[in-house]
């Protein structure tokens, strides 16, 4: 069994050639451990924040963390393990991946709006609005894959939704922090959440630049490419967000 590493279209791949001549290719294999870490973070934080003492204030965050773990598992399958096989199974995982990513951004925004007292997540009207927003995102992504308008889908449903929802969450949450005298140790985690997310997004936008700098060194480019940086920073952002919510919840905030 031989393993051959290669770079094509700014993507690192590891091709495994078995003794019988069959070849199986895994794209960006470095992403796989980060996806398992994300799954652990998502499930463990969901269970933690669903405890009775945290449920009222942090229940929506718990849902967000669980969605993140599921999303990253689908991303592992769509962007790495099955990425070299464009079949209907990979298409399903891809749709779930990007739909959950956009949906998580919406839920994060709702967490901030709830913290700021702008919405009441317990009301039926708010729940219906959130569900309608998420349903619209899923329908939009399914239409994107059906029509193959991936550039439009990325700009509107991925980049557009994330760049609107996440910065808005940060702004609203800053007002919440100021109004409620959140402890400094929790505020530090909040800023690390924003910094991690910003670095990950900049890496996605600078994918061509990263490719030009590191693609000639496969061993380095395997770790320093837009996808790997985005996945690592996503894990860090969720970890720091969970710590921020945990630390402030200890003060009944």
Which key terms come to mind for this protein?
three-stranded antiparallel sheet, 8% strand, single chain, mainly alpha, 253 residues
What's this, in brief?
By secondary structure, the chain is mostly helical. It has helices at 31-49, 52-81, 88-115, 124-147, 150-180, 184-205, 207-214, 218-221, 226-249; strands at 2-8, 11-17, 23-27. Helix content is 75%, strand content 8%.
List the topology elements.
Layout: E1 2-8, E2 11-17, E3 23-27, H1 31-49, H2 52-81, H3 88-115, H4 124-147, H5 150-180, H6 184-205, H7 207-214, H8 218-221, H9 226-249
Antiparallel strand pairs: 1-2, 2-3
Widest β-sheet, arrangement of strands? 1-2-3
How would the global form be characterised? globular
> Which structural class matches the secondary elements?
mainly alpha
Tally of strands: 3
Number of helices: 9
Low-confidence stretches: none
End-to-end separation: 56 Å
What this model shows, in words?
The protein has 253 residues and is mainly α. It is 75% helix and 8% strand. The chain is built from nine helices and three strands. Strands 1-2-3 form a three-stranded antiparallel β-sheet. The radius of gyration is 19 Å and the shape is globular.
């Amino acid at each position: 069994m031989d393993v051959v590493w290669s770079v094509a279209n700014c993507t690192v791949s590891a091709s495994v050639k078995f003794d019988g001549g069959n070849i199986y290719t895994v794209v960006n294999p470095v992403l796989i451990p980060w996806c398992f870490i994300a799954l652990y973070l998502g499930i463990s934080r969901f269970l933690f924040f669903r405890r009775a003492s945290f449920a009222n204030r942090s229940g929506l965050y718990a849902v967000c963390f669980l969605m993140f773990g599921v999303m990253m598992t689908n991303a592992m399958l769509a962007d790495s393990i099955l990425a070299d096989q464009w079949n209907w199974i990979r298409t399903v995982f891809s749709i779930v991946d990007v739909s959950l990513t956009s949906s998580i951004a919406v839920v994060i925004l709702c967490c901030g709006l709830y913290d700021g007292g702008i919405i009441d997540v317990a009301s039926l009207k708010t729940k219906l609005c959130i569900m309608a927003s998420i349903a619209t995102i899923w329908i939009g992504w399914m239409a994107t894959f059906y029509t193959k308008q991936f550039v439009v889908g990325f700009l509107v449903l991925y980049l557009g939704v994330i760049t609107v929802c996440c910065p808005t969450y940060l702004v609203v949450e800053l007002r919440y922090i100021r109004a409620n005298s959140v402890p400094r140790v929790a505020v530090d985690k909040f800023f690390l959440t924003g910094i991690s997310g910003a670095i990950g997004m900049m890496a996605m936008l600078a994918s061509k630049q990263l490719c030009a700098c590191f693609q000639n060194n496969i061993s380095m480019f395997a770790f320093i490419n837009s996808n790997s940086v985005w996945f690592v920073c996503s894990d860090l952002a969720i970890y720091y967000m969970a710590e921020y919510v945990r630390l402030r919840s200890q003060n009944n905030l």
